């Protein structure tokens, strides 16, 4: 696939997102155990027996929230999927967010937490949202359409030590420091050895500015039912259908 | 990969996803493994109506598993003891005998033999290693140590 916009695209993401997660998987996993409240609430409130997706499941921390629903979780990193697959009754598989192996118009819900912001062009971010929305059940006479919860990192992070805020460059490389790294990585071009047995890996992020998530959702054919900001992140609850779900909108958490 | 999951996935290629032949994916050279899991009767009752029964039958047949009934069981088949002795005689193990029924609530939720069989097929029977083949484009997806890999080579994206 040819790269677009300033050399960004699939190849770029492979180098600056996927291979980094694959290396940091065990360490990353041990630090990612606390679910975001908005996501946890979304999953807990689903009717029993709902069938849905976790696109970019990482270590599968959201698979522990509700055992009365069934989640097919996917991630690009086989090492993370192996960890996620341990959460019964759910299921985990390896897939790319842009080429999801899911039945169309079938699922009751989907979550995608901290994933879309790793795609390096707007076109690819919108494509990944569309792939999620296409898998959601359409509304019919007896029920609302399926719903997706999308969660991305915000540009506006006044409270965080990272120092980003309105006006900052939105495409950034974020360091991940690993201590006591034993093996020296083969491709050292984006890995810096740091004294004291530390290795720093840089991951690519597109930081979403206010209103941008809603814009991308609508470009992808989704309708925002609810949206908000939660500790350095923007989130939106989305349905694909013009008629589904609008008569009932949850108040902001 | 659980057989339940196989019932919810299709080929990852965009050109295939709208084609009926891309679902279900067909197991090839599959090595099966039983991964035991607690039976949750309510979960089964809720999930069952979402199962594409004929696709499940096809997959079971291709895997050489016992033939499933032509018609999908209904809720009552799952929560009541089988009223027709011998109907599921092949897999009867004598576990289903009542142990007093002291709590009526529990008795209502007691899984039937049909429920136990379905639990075994949908949730405990997994493809440990092998391939999943798309009936439309012929692409093979590898399954290794229970995990299916749907990443496409770049020329197929
Ligand atoms: Zn195909």
From TrEMBL, chain A:
GO cellular component: cytoplasm; nucleus
InterPro entries: AlkB_tRNA_MeTrf/Diox, Methyltransf_11, SAM-dependent_MTases_sf
GO molecular function, one term: tRNA binding
Keyword Transferase set for record: yes
Any one Pfam family match given in the protein's UniProt record, by short name: Methyltransf_11
SUPFAM superfamilies: S-adenosyl-L-methionine-dependent methyltransferases
Record protein name field: Uracil-5--methyltransferase TRM9
TrEMBL record, chain B:
GO biological process: rRNA (guanine-N7)-methylation; tRNA methylation
Pfam families tied to this protein: Trm112p
Source organism, top-level taxon: Eukaryota
Positions of region (Disordered): 74-115
Biased composition (Acidic residues): 91-106
MF (Gene Ontology): protein heterodimerization activity
Signal peptide location: none
Family membership noted in the UniProt record: Belongs to the TRM112 family.
PANTHER family associated with the record: MULTIFUNCTIONAL METHYLTRANSFERASE SUBUNIT TRM112-LIKE PROTEIN, UPF0315 PROTEIN-RELATED
Protein name (Swiss-Prot/TrEMBL): Trm112p-domain-containing protein
Species of provenance: Viridothelium virens
Upper lineage: Eukaryota, Fungi, Dikarya, Ascomycota, Pezizomycotina
């Amino acid at each position: 696939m040819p790269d677009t916009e300033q050399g960004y695209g699939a190849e770029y993401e492979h180098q600056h997102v996927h291979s980094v997660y694959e290396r940091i998987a065990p360490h990353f996993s041990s630090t990612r155990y606390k679910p975001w409240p908005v996501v946890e609430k979304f999953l807990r409130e689903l009717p029993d027996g709902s069938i849905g997706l976790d696109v970019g499941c990482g270590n599968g921390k959201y698979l522990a929230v509700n055992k009365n629903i069934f989640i097919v979780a996917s991630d690009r990193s086989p090492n993370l999927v192996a960890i996620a697959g341990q959460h019964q009754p759910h299921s985990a598989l390896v897939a790319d967010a842009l080429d999801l192996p899911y039945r169309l118009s079938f699922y009751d819900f989907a979550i995608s937490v901290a994933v879309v912001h790793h795609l390096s062009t707007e076109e690819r971010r919108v494509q990944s949202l569309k792939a999620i929305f296409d898998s959601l059940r359409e509304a019919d006479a007896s029920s609302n359409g399926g719903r997706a919860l999308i969660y991305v990192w915000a540009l506006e992070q006044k409270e965080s030590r990272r120092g980003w805020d309105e006006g900052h460059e939105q495409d950034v490389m974020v360091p991940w420091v690993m201590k006591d790294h034993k093996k020296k990585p083969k491709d050292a071009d984006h890995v810096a050895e740091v004294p004291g047995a530390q290795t720093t890996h840089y991951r690519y992020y597109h930081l979403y500015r206010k209103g941008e998530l809603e814009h991308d959702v609508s470009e992808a054919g989704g309708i925002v039912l609810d949206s908000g900001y939660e500790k350095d992140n923007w989130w939106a609850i989305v349905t694909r259908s013009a008629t589904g779900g609008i008569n009932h909108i949850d108040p902001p958490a | 990969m659980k057989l339940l999951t196989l019932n919810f996935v299709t080929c990852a290629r965009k050109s295939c996803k709208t084609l009926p032949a891309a679902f279900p994916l067909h197991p090839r050279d599959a090595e099966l493994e039983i991964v035991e899991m607690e039976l949750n009767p309510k979960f089964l009752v809720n999930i069952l109506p979402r199962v594409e029964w004929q696709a499940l039958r096809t997959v079971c047949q291709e895997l050489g598993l016992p033939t499933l009934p032509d018609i999908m069981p209904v809720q009552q088949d799952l929560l009541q003891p089988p009223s027709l002795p011998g109907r599921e005689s092949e897999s009867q193990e004598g576990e289903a005998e009542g142990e007093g029924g002291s709590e009526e609530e529990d008795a209502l939720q007691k899984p039937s033999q049909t429920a136990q069989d379905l639990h075994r097929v949908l949730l405990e029977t997994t493809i440990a290693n092998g391939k999943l083949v798309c009936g439309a484009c012929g692409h093979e997806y590898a399954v290794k140590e229970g995990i299916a890999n749907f990443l496409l080579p770049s020329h197929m994206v």
